Amino acid sequence: MTDSKYFTTNKKGEIFELKAELNNEKKEKRKEAVKKVIAAMTVGKDVSSLFPDVVNCMQTDNLELKKLVYLYLMNYAKNQPDMAIMAVNSFVKDCEDPNPLIRALAVRTMGCIRVDKITEYLCEPLRKCLKDEDPYVRKTAAVCVAKLHDINAQMVEDQGFLDSLRDLIADSNPMVVANAVAALSEISESHPNSNLLDLNPQNINKLLTALNECTEWGQIFILDCLSNYNPKDEREAQSICERVTPRLSHANSAVVLSAVKVLMKFLELLPKDSDYYNTLLKKLSPPLVTLLSGEPEVQYVALRNINLIVQKRPEILKQEIKVFFVKYNDPIYVKLEKLDIMIRLASQANIAQVLAELKEYATEVDVDFVRKAVRAIGRCAIKVEQSAERCVSTLLDLIQTKVNYVVQEAIVVIRDIFRKYPNKYESIIATLCENLDSLDEPDARAAMIWIVGEYAERIDNADELLESFLEGFHDESTQVQLTLLTAIVKLFLKKPSETQELVQQVLSLATQDSDNPDLRDRGYIYWRLLSTDPVTAKEVVLSEKPLISEETDLIEPTLLDELICHIGSLASVYHKPPNAFVEGSHGIHRKHLPVQHSSIDTGESPVSSGPAANIEQTHVIPSQGDLLGDLLNLDLGPRSTCPRCPPCRWGLWTLTVLIACNSVLLLQVWLPAVKAKGLEISGTFTRRQGQMYMDMTFTNKALQHMTDFAVQFNKNSFGVIPTSPLPVHTPLMPNQNIELSLPLNTIGPVMKMDPLNNLQVHTAHETKSKAVILTFFPIYFSERQVFLATWKDIPNENELQYQIKECHLNADTVSGKLQNSNIYTIAKRNVEGQDMLYQSLKLTNGIWILAELRIQPGNPNYTLSLKCRAPEVSQYIYQTYDSILKT
Amino acid sequence: MIHSLFLINASGDIFLEKHWKSVVSRSVCDYFFEAQERASEPENVPPVIPTPHHYLISVLRHRIYFVAVIQSEVPPLFVIEFLHRVVDTFQDYFGVCTEAAIKDNVVVVYELLEEMLDNGFPLATESNILKELIKPPTILRTMVNTITGSTNVGEQLPTGQLSVVPWRRTGVKYTNNEAYFDVVEEIDAIIDKSGSTITAEIQGVIDACVKLTGMPDLTLSFMNPRLLDDVSFHPCVRFKRWEAERILSFIPPDGNFRLLSYHVSSQNLVAIPVYVKHNITFREGSSQGRFDLTLGPKQTMGKAVESVLVSSQLPRGVLNVNLNPSQGTYTFDPVTKLLSWDVGKINPQKLPSLKGSMSLQAGASKPDENPTFNIQFKIQQMAISGLKVNRLDMYGEKYKPFKGIKYMTKAGKFQVRT
């Protein structure tokens, strides 16, 4: 009696048998056969070869059979476009059927047949259906426009269907309105710039009316659409909010969350001191709490969104921390999210409860969860100062459990607590040291090493402890190596007499045996510091560290505001703007929270009433483990060469950038923002009117403004130095960039670098985060000169030959290209069909280079012969040629 | 919008797929299987999984994963709510929502899915509309269909689909007109080891079974409506009237439906109807542990606490238990370490207890984690929040209906830590 009989197949002749049955005389047999075909289709079997036979069954007055055939058609029409045309006639006929159900079904199915050829035949019936007297047909037709647009967007526009769709927004039936909105929203997703949904007050009014009467799904579409509207003043915003608020009590959680989005967005427009504003805030809390009593999946999505909401408006849920307490049979993904929100809501008032909970969680079974709970205790200590002492004692209790991963996690957070409250809890160091042997994760080892180094003077056997780590130096991760290096240097500066050998050992390990540039550079810096000026070294290495800030991993305010506009969407689940991950939405306008128009001139700028106001007070420190962690641990102090830079830290980056002489190369990013706390520097070298310039663009990608920029060049092979200080006088605001040109000359001290083209530049800027950057890059300069007969004067052993490969230019273009880069061709001759170009160039430090470029027609490989008294530069000249010719 | 749906059973086979737009290859589910492998428990599979070109949003119900595939920015809750609706519909149609039931009714399932979603847009999800379009399979109807050659697909446009009351069909007729309301409250609570309440909240629902002729217009009023400050209504409830007068006024759907759900938050004082005394100890170095658990009622206003079931996941180090229940029976699964004690009714004069010893792995250190007890119970004739219905009135029809109201309190996620 059941449908499972359709699955029982017999032997190999299945398709053949079905074919026979489909062509059976009896209607009943045919229906059974189609059912079998559908059953086969559902389990993924290929039954496309039966297409003509199934289509033959379409002409029937039996609705069920018709539907089944339609089902089949939708699935397979794509593979058999020619056959599918056979079905068109039936569709057109069905669109005229007196029964609206059949009309709607036909228009629905036609749209699902994703075959280009068919779409042309579809236009007329669709146009009729869009104006059908029956709303059921109209609403189906609205969706069909979206389907058609997906297949052939151009045609939909040409046929004017978009206008018909817009007209449907004014339809008398709310369901039709909802579907029209849904279809338009979907279409506009692929049409980022077209203003398809023209949201004006009249349309908004229609949508709000339809909102009350349409189905829950329609309400979601309408609410999402409303959230894109920007009310012109607070009165309009308030009246929309009033009509949206009842949706917060809907049983469908998606409706609730979409309503929350609209309200969160429009709240921005309401005056903060009005009664309505405060009532609305109160009304937002219960529905959010209710979402958490839903199924775990609903909870998860709700929690990800609540995470955003509590960051934007913590007052909404500050009383509700208990609903975020974890139940032990919550799925792990719910547990982790709840924990995150608990910390965001933790305050002096509830910290006792929160801590008791966290301690409970730390004894659970799931490792990920336990770790996060331990980390959460540390975050509480940093966030709520009054609780620090209790947090520390809780952590100590946990360390006593000796559960390996708990201990490791606890040590990592204790390091942060030490940073936050220096000289307060060092008495526990002894307890920590007992657990040294059990640490096997890099994070925990690095944390422990940092603690030992920082408090070396209080730990009697600090040298032994650090020495024990040194034994397996090369097997450690970079993070541990760097920390260990710094820790031993600290130890040496504190107890120089006993640890000389140790510091020697670590410096040689870092500089000679390691092939990690960061480690090596840090090693060299320490070495030079220690060998030249131990007093400065002490000042630098043991300088006061800035306090770490209270809030960890907050979302950047601008991103947060954007995400608030996307509450309920995938973006809100991933905490990323949609264009970062949704395919085909690159052009989507980024959404912004509306800014309140201050109608009264209070002297307050509109920005300060908007969300940007608190940017300056927000400190964001990046989470552990990224590159910045290294920077913070570097512990190098102020340097006299950077007088305008108060106590700050120095980082070190190696960048190998090939810069051609004076050529107009594209700006290159010398220093990406992630490595420099938000300061991005890109730049190039140019020459204008015989003067060299370093052209740079500084972009502030951090949250705070940056001031006091300074630049300094180290001694280099060419004596390049800046002739003036950095012309930056105004603070660089977040997201602002500044372009500047730094004139250079070559009268500075010369020191031969290895490689020759290394130029070490320090740029410094004073921000609250105090990041400083060093870069290295190669540089060349040349000048026009007549070709001299000195070619022969230079000994032949100084001549070097290079091949420039895969270059398809003729001699004239080559010479033009080089000339643009200030390499002038002195002579050109043709020897046995080969073009010979002779060029000369002079570097700023007076080194002459003579070049002969041989170009054979038809051969993409050129031969470059270089002669120079200092043959070591030839390699770089060759690279320069290569890059000029290939750009 | 929703692109495709895959149904996957517990052993990881895709047993049904349905595409509303172009066909998405099954291989997209590989990402789901990966996530499934990583998850320690079936319910720990994350509900939203990104893949290079699609997003997979899944719910697990009745040991079946319902995996929806989406391609563009779609509200995940929209998808999740829709999947819930699919599950509910299957259950409604086939009585159970199992792999076997779905396979047995695969054509109906396909017809239903086709009717519920068009090009990814929800079309008809209200059960009474669907039932008019596609008749639920019954043995009788299947036989009639086979004999007469008629179908189980409705030929007419469902009447409710476009009316202002889409949830109710017209022309309903009953000989016995009756309206029953069940007020069911679930307590979610966490009790700490000292017996004090960490958090307690009540999730309440009013489920209705209304079988009334014609177009009745009902009003329901409460003795203490102030309790209900956080409510979600069925679309039939007139929100304005509730805002103004705290009265529920509605034209009910026909048959069973959930009139409203409400939430009494942890900020109100929530009565806890049972208490647990426990003493569970492991000693360092000993291979024995003591287990002692006693239950008792409190604040039940004289109503009996029934169907009590205590379950707990004991620490991994526990090999076996040897316990003695004063009433009911207990089971312990040495593999999963799941202890479950079916207590039955609590007699306030003679409190039920479960005492005895646990044997631990010899030589192992004492377990770090303490077991948490999950307690289930039922109390009839009482809504623990104190919510009481005042009266139910009917307008718009002339007959006198039979009215009934029932209260019940249950444990939801009721956990006692030790």
Model description:
By secondary structure, chain A is of the alpha+beta class. Chain A is 48% helix and 11% strand. Chain A has 35 helices and 13 strands. In chain A, strand 7 (759-766) and strand 8 (772-777) form a beta hairpin. The longest helix of chain A is centred in the first third of the chain and has 17 residues, at 135-151. Chain B has helices at 29-38, 76-94, 99-104, 106-116, 127-133, 139-148, 239-245; strands at 2-8, 14-19, 48-50, 55-61, 64-70, 117-118, 121-122, 178-191, 197-211, 217-222, 231-233, 247-250, 255-264, 274-282, 288-297, 305-313, 318-325, 329-333, 338-344, 353-360, 372-380, 389-395, 402-417. Chain B has a 9-stranded mixed β-sheet, with no helix packed on it. Classes of the chains: A alpha+beta (887), B alpha+beta (418). The interface between A and B is large, with 108 and 99 residues.
Record keyword descriptors for this entry.
A: 887 residues; alpha+beta; five-stranded antiparallel beta sheet; 35 helices; 11% strand; globular; B: 418 residues; nine-stranded mixed beta sheet; 23 strands
